[in-house]
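input
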Amino acid sequence: MSTGSPRQASAPPRIPGFDYVRVLGAGGSADVYLYRQHLPSRLVAVKVLAAQGLDDEVRRRFTDEANLMAQLSHHPSIVTVHHASVAADGRPYLVMEHCSQPGLGERYRVERMGVAEVLRIGVRLASAVQTAHGHGVLHRDIKPANVLTTDFGWPALTDFGIAATVGQQGAAGLSVPWAPPEMLATPPSSDERSDVYCLGATLYSALAGRSPFEVPGGANGAADLVMRIERDPLPAVGRADVPAGLSRVLARAMAKRPADRYASALELGRALQRVESELALPVTTLDLPGEGAPRAGTLAGSAGDATRPRPPLVVPPASAGPADARSPADGRSADSPAPGPRRAGAGQVAAAAVVVVAVAGLVVAWLHGATPAPADPDGFGEATAPPAAAVPAVRDLAGARGPDGSVRFTWTNPAPEDGDTYRWGVVTATGEDALAAAGGPTATVRDAPGAVCVQVLLVRADGRVSAQPARGCAG
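output
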């Protein structure tokens, strides 16, 4: 934690063929910028390692992340990696697709997310996690902040920076609020069921508006959370609209003992599908690689194999739902689009009994800059309205210590609109803290004897929030 001026992103590197646009976010070890690529012309997110602490081990982990994401990014719910290299100033960088809509990390604290949407997100992420496991990769840090949202509204898993091959142990860099007990133990351990726990904890957060063992208004430091995660039963979500069946699914996914959880992400995804069916909702498909994917426990063998799109296998729920909830022709939800509308070449026939329909018109319209028409006003289908204008991050976030030991933070709103408010909170050792409302561009942290860091989100009157929080520290 910085003891000086607020943490600012470092100067963006010069990258041939790309023009810098703006900062998207600044983290402890890397910064993310928005660039425009010249050819093909498109906006991309570029993750750049910070110059501080850049040693051989950090470079190796960054290279591993680039290689792992490249092998997995053909999946419609895993962020696509376009390119990786080293800038002229020596900083490694990763060029990824730009997910323009607010991600789960920005939404779950400030929105009441619907049950139907959380179920859809859960099924899609379960298929992404199962795909990673099929390539012998554990994510080990699934949490709301690592679930982005594509232009088409699909969840996209990112940040494989602490991923490991199956069987590798350790827990460096994990996020305590969503970590399972075995990863917090001494020595730590993890397997596929650890990712199942983290995914369950992420879905719990989307419903509850807080991390699973966080006590609103209570002590939520790392030690407090670890004790509750290891010993306390899972608290109720606290929403009357969350069905008992979904609560049971989350409780099993987050069981203390790995043996009591779902054995795989696929099993968790099918359980979430059954809840959709019980609620008479369209059943979201599980998008899994078809023939030719590497066997579990092995990494892809060649660069060519790692980047070749593979036909998705559409997995219907284990038991059929209501007769009107699924199409008799292909087993999919009647309202669900073909898997992966943002992946060219994904609509291929996987088997005689499993048909994937290519949404060619939508892809062509997207590639030519057309805006898809809004559809499905009841909110239960898969089509989404065109994304609204992005909400900018606040600027000039800075803190000053007063004579009473408190720290007063101020910031500026770069594009004020009527009804603007703010959500802010102290960044703790776990990376999370409850966010409080602020009507104006100022907030005060009381009883702050040492360095303190905060994060701030700009909230529009219609509920839209900044795509990335602004963060700043004061000594």
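quick obs: The CA atoms of residues 277 and 455 lie 39 Å apart.
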